[in-house]
Amino acid sequence: YQKQMTDFTYFSGMWQATDIQETTKTIPSKDYYIARHFFDTRNSFNAYATYKIDVAQDHHFSLMAGFSQEDYDYKYYNTQAEEQALIDIPSMGNAQGKVTVSDSYADFGIRSGFFRFNYDYKGKYILEVSGRYDGSSKFPKDSRFAFFPSFSMAWNVAEENFMSGTRKWLNQLKPRFSYGSIGNQASAGYYDYIASMGLSTKSTVWLNGNDDANYVTQLGTPGLVSANFTWETITTSNVGLDFALFNNRLTGMFEWFQRDTKDILSEGVDLPGVLGVAAPNQNVGKMRTRGWELQLGWRGNIGEKVQYNVGFNLWDYKSKVMKLNFNSSKSLGSLYEGMDVGEIWGYLYDGFYTVEDFKDTSSWELVDGVPTLQGYSPR
């Protein structure tokens, strides 16, 4: 048994600002006092324990398990009071005119349990298994938790007995493979699982032409929400080879990887505009990234006092949208199913109109036989 580790982190920030605005004499009684308050609090707690044991000197085991929790709370208040009775001593109570109050807030929490198991035999056979069970308050109550497993294995071939003849110049030859998954909640809003209705205060200036009177509260249409949207899952598979030669002076690595992002939060369906609300986010998207990386390094010395290191790195990857039910923006650089990420979309054209293509420039009527697009004027 090694030891238990715990830590607790607390951060709290407060920002306050006040401002008094005195307008020119041409617009009397329009001075106002503003007070803004901002509170930001973050709490994090981590606790874990590690157990290590060696069996028959050659078998090495290690087990780690732990728990973590993070909370975030944000509050913002804004108050504005117009027509101050005493400009030199501004306050909310001195307001002779309209007083408006607004605020905003956000909070969320993450709770996780995790573990990691390691085993190696004489540094030749290496195995690691790990997992996380994460929960986020950003998702509906029945969809907040998900399990994300990972594992990796490696074989240091250079340590095998049948490789003894190469040990004078080969220090490491280690093929390896890994598979891992992790959750992503960044695409979800704080309260996307709540069908909220926005409140706003508007003037009825269209009734009496007075912008300072007859304010009414408006209630917006509730948005649509998905009943069971949850974490996006990112899985990565790696196949690699590490090597070291000539007393570890020449080192290198080659790796091929595939990263799949599943259950991407996106608009699930195309809804008619007459509905009046946007389509809710659902776990409907999938994206795949494939790539490779090559690293080479050389270290040496000139004499006894000068040492140097030289490195080389080369990599490439490409991401493709495997599934995307609907894309409402259709903007330049948007994601489209079956296409690569980063592709730029545009129109094909056959050429430009010239003066000779028109009968006259007053009516902009095209000469017979000149192509045009139905429903559009070349003018």
From TrEMBL:
Main localization, broad class: membrane
Compartments where found: Cell outer membrane
UniProt membrane topology term: Multi-pass membrane protein
Pfam families: TonB_dep_Rec_b-barrel (PF00593)
PROSITE patterns: TONB_DEPENDENT_REC_3 (PS52016)
InterPro entries: Beta-barrel_TonB, Beta-barrel_TonB_sf, TonB-dep_rcpt-like
Record keywords, A-Z: Cell outer membrane, Membrane, Receptor, TonB box, Transmembrane, Transport
Domain TonB-dependent receptor-like beta-barrel residues, every copy: 18-335
GO cellular-component term (any): cell outer membrane
Protein's recorded name: TonB-dependent receptor plug domain protein
Protein source organism: human gut metagenome
Lineage of origin: unclassified sequences, metagenomes, organismal metagenomes
